[in-house]
């Protein structure tokens, strides 16, 4: 079993009477791309802030890289790159100058500073950016700069809160590719998002937060396991129904959904029976099903 | 450290920072148990003892501010900060400290020099026997000397000691017997070793809070060095000699009259030698200054604008705490300015006596 | 810590706001000097800032007069804004959370911000003093024939003594502003916007100044932050009157300790939710 990078026990945060995070037990392993899913207001950002020592837990413990947070923040945080909620930078300074400030604070050596700053700008696609102040940046550019901040110092762990906010489809693709590339390089990524698709595309493990509770925490491939049913596409629907009597769960004019354990045997049976098969696909659970089933009603709905 | 611990540490630190000075100040003063009569004798004996220090006086009398009396009004109506070095009655220096500078009085063999920093001038004058009050009269030993003059032992009793300028000073209360007096009592605390008065409070009849308080905040009973009472006008400063110190001095020297020997039952003081009458002693004192029309006019206007002013038969009368002021005559006329720590009734009787018995001389 | 200080000071001197503020503060004494030169009318005795009456004949005293001009109002406002911005400004911009996860220790950040404010005050005082000296000597001249400056008590003051006492006065002014900075820094950790922190500090100062005019507040006067601000004049008496300067120093020291302590207690465990 690989090492736990982020682990919490009964992590709870109350703001007055409101319980924002309610006793969650996170388990993020080395090499994971951990998709931390939840609707807006479900407590994702508060959790991220607790992991980084910005918000102090009401009860429960958090360990990051094997050390307690926030107590050992001085040792832990230098190995973490973070994008918390939204990027922020000194608006009068250029993006490059902002990165230089952070590089100086992160104990980087002065002589190699330019190289490091240029490298992260290159990584996030801002290599050619001019010296205009951050105040004049577009939302997408700010997001890229925020990512550059996080990448500075080659962190072992990336904690990213909604990293694709404000990016166009092209930008989202670039960020995804960048994260996958970093992941291949051994970086553990904790990706907090409310976008199912974003998480589904790159996560290896998923945690789902609903109104402060961690309702699901599992490997993505386990969540997306086959349902035991198979889609059969065929022009001969009636013939197939007759052949598979009792196993067909539903059908329409062009396809059937068949409960079957052995797909190869199903195919052989259909072919033997003279049914023309144009497609055959085992049905899998979708992340959306999992999340909806676990989370129930949307958290911003208020019904009597 | 938990938040509660941090806040506790801060709260304890704050309490210590605030509490220690308060506790030090609240420490009770030791009383030597000296009797009232002995203390009175000690203070009288210490009248010429040298000293130096820092004095704050606080007057609550809102005197009318006619231009020639402005300084007097400030002395008795405001807070005055002073530094004083007193070698003897013939060599002393009193600095009135202002946030914008200083006004100093330096007294030595040459006379009294007044230095004003902001005006950048120095004025040398003789020291007349009759004059208006000045800063040097506000330091506790000077006030005590004036008020405890001619006091009968039956009029004083002891007050508990209190700490004044770090000295455990035994206290003395003087309750004047004279019916003319407007003063209920005068409290004096003195240095038990030198007898120098350290704090004086004057409370008017019918009042609970002092009308005038003066006290040392820093006190040293050693003789200050001679250099402190020397004054060399700085280069570039205006330096002049003034023949006449103030309006009282001028009237005393030049007005062609002689006031009567007794007014309102108060005898004239031996120091009065000219047109200005000084009557009574100790806490019951009265000053009568003859004024010409152009001097009396502005003062009368100011008096008429003062809160609680009364027009009586003999003129315009104002009482400010223990101080009564009566300006005789009406608009356009000269008259007597009668002021003192006496009752209004005593003032009007004094006016009557002055009208009846003043002698006009042809020349002075 | 040194890197953090380096970054903070670098930000301070690079910021356009720093220099605009200093320029505005510097402008007032300069205007006063020009008006004095043109009209040759000094303030009436007992009114106006200390030393202003003296500069008409002695321009070398103008740095002190300039200090007396800016110390009661301009400088404290600037310090309140600067220190009020320290934590609340970073929080409002969102940069605070990125500083803290970099990581920058919270106590260190607080100290670095204080040092940055001290540097700002030093810079301002230096600029004001130098400009005032140049303006004073050029415009108001050294007309005093004998050349010697006098103390407030009328005794001569050598150039050496004048310089020493001027530096003492500047140090004292710096300390007084440190007290303001500590209050503003504390408020900056409490409220969400820099404006609120600056206004809160100004409210404390205005309240203190107002209470000082009341005889009824005599018993607490010695604890009010602005009580001994103008005591630097006492350094120019002969002999120097240390009483108020010493008390002022102790008082400001206590304010710095208490409010930095409170700022630390609050900020070290504060949830950063912005």
TrEMBL record, chain A:
Q: Which residues form the ABC transporter domain?
A: 6-236
Q: Which SUPFAM superfamilies match?
A: P-loop containing nucleoside triphosphate hydrolases
Source species, domain of life: Bacteria
The alphabetical list of record keywords is: ATP-binding, Nucleotide-binding, Transport
Molecular-function annotations in GO: ATP binding; ATP hydrolysis activity
Query: Mind telling me which InterPro entries this protein's record contains?
Result: AAA+_ATPase, ABC_transporter-like_ATP-bd, P-loop_NTPase
Family named by the database record: Belongs to the ABC transporter superfamily.
PANTHER family under this entry?
ABC TRANSPORTER, ATP-BINDING PROTEIN
Q: What protein name is recorded for this chain?
A: ABC transporter ATP-binding protein
The organism named in the record is: Nocardioides islandensis
Automatic annotation (TrEMBL), chain B:
Q: What domain of life does the UniProt record list for this protein's source?
A: Bacteria
**Name this polypeptide is given:** Transcriptional regulator
Name the species this protein comes from.
Nocardioides islandensis
Output the lineage of the source organism: Bacteria, Bacillati, Actinomycetota, Actinomycetes, Propionibacteriales
């Amino acid at each position: 079993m690989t090492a736990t990078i982020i682990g919490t026990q009964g992590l709870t945060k109350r703001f007055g009477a409101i319980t924002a995070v309610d006793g969650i037990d996170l388990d993020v392993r080395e090499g994971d791309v951990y998709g931390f899913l939840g609707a807006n207001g479900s407590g994702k950002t508060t959790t991220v802030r607790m992991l980084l020592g910005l918000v102090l837990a009401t009860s429960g413990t958090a360990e990051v890289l094997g050390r307690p947070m926030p107590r050992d923040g001085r040792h832990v945080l230098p190995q973490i790159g973070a994008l918390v909620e939204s990027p922020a930078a000194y608006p009068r300074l250029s993006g490059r100058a902002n990165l230089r400030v952070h590089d100086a604070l992160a104990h980087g050596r002065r002589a190699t500073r330019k190289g490091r700053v240029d490298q992260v700008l290159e990584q996030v696609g801002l290599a050619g950016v001019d010296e205009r102040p951050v105040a004049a940046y577009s939302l997408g550019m700010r997001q890229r700069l925020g990512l550059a901040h996080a990448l500075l110092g080659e962190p072992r762990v990336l904690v990213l809160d909604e990293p694709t906010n404000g990016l166009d489809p092209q930008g989202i693709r670039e960020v995804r590719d960048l994260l996958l590339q970093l992941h291949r390089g051994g970086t553990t990524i904790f990706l907090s998002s409310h976008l199912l698709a974003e998480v589904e595309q790159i996560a290896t493990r998923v945690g789902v937060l609903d109104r402060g509770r961690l309702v699901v925490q599992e490997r993505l491939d386990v969540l997306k396991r086959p349902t035991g049913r198979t889609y059969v596409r065929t022009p001969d629907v009636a013939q197939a129904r007759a052949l598979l009597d009792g196993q067909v769960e539903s059908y329409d004019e062009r396809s059937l959904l068949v409960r079957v354990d052995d797909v190869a045997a199903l195919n052989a049976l259909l072919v033997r029976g003279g049914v023309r098969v144009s497609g055959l696909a085992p049905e899998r659970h979708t992340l959306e099903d999992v999340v909806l089933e676990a989370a129930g009603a949307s958290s911003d709905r208020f019904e009597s | 450290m938990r938040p509660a611990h941090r806040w506790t540490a801060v709260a304890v630190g704050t309490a210590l920072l605030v509490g220690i000075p308060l506790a030090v100040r609240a420490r009770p003063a030791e009383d030597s148990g000296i009797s009232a009569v002995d203390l009175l004798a000690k203070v009288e004996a210490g009248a010429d003892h040298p000293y130096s220090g820092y004095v704050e006086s606080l007057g609550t009398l809102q005197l009318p501010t006619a231009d020639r009396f402005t300084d007097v009004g400030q002395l008795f109506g405001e807070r005055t900060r002073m530094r004083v070095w007193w070698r003897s009655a013939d060599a002393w220096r009193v600095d009135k400290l202002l946030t914008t500078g200083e006004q100093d009085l330096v007294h030595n063999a040459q006379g009294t020099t007044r230095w004003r920093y902001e005006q950048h001038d120095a004025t040398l004058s003789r020291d007349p026997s009759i004059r208006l009050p000045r800063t040097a009269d506000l330091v506790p030993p000077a006030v005590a000397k004036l008020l405890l003059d001619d006091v009968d032992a039956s009029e004083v009793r002891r007050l508990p000691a209190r700490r004044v300028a770090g000295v455990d000073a035994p206290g003395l209360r003087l309750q004047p017997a004279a019916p003319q007096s407007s003063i209920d009592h005068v409290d004096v605390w003195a240095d038990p070793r030198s007898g120098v008065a350290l704090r004086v409070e004057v409370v008017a009849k019918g009042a609970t809070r002092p009308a005038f308080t003066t006290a040392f905040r820093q006190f040293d009973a050693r003789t200050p060095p001679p250099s402190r009472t020397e004054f060399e006008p700085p280069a570039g400063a205006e330096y002049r000699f003034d023949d006449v110190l103030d309006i009282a001095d001028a009237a005393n020297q030049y007005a062609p009259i002689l006031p009567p020997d007794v007014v309102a039952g108060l005898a004239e003081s031996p120091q009065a030698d000219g047109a200005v009458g000084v009557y009574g002693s100790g806490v019951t004192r009265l000053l009568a200054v003859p004024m010409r029309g152009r001097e009396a006019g502005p003062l009368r206007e100011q008096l008429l604008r003062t809160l609680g002013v009364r027009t009586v038969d003999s003129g315009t009368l104002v009482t400010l705490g223990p101080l009564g002021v009566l300006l005789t005559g009406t608009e356009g006329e000269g008259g007597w300015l009668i002021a003192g720590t006496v009752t209004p009734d005593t003032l009007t009787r004094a006016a009557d006596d002055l009208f009846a018995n003043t002698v006009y001389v042809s020349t002075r | 810590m040194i890197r953090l200080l380096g970054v903070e000071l670098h930000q301070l001197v690079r910021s356009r706001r720093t220099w605009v503020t200093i320029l505005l503060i510097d402008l007032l004494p300069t205007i006063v000097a020009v008006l004095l030169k043109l009209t040759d009318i000094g303030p009436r005795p007992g009114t106006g800032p200390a030393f202003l009456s003296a500069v008409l004949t002695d321009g070398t005293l103008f740095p002190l007069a300039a200090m007396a001009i800016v110390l009661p109002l301009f400088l404290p406002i600037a310090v309140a804004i600067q220190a009020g911005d320290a934590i609340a400004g970073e929080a409002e911009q969102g940069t605070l959370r990125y500083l803290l996860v970099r990581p920058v220790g919270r106590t260190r950040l607080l100290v670095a911000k204080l040092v940055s404010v001290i540097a700002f005050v030093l810079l301002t005082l230096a600029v004001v003093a130098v400009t005032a000296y140049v303006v004073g000597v050029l415009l108001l001249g050294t007309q005093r024939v004998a050349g010697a400056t006098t103390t407030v008590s009328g005794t001569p003051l050598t150039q050496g003594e004048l310089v020493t006492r001027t530096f003492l006065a500047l140090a004292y002014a710096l300390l007084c502003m440190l007290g303001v900075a500590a209050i503003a820094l504390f408020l900056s950790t409490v409220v969400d916007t820099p404006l609120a922190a600056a206004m809160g500090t100004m409210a404390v100062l205005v309240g203190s100044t107002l209470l000082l005019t009341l005889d009824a507040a005599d018993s607490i006067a010695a604890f009010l932050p602005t009580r001994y601000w103008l005591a630097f004049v006492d350094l120019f008496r002969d002999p120097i009157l240390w009483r108020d300067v010493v008390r002022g120093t102790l008082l400001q020291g206590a304010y710095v300790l208490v409010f930095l302590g409170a700022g630390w207690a609050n900020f070290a465990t504060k949830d950063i939710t912005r």
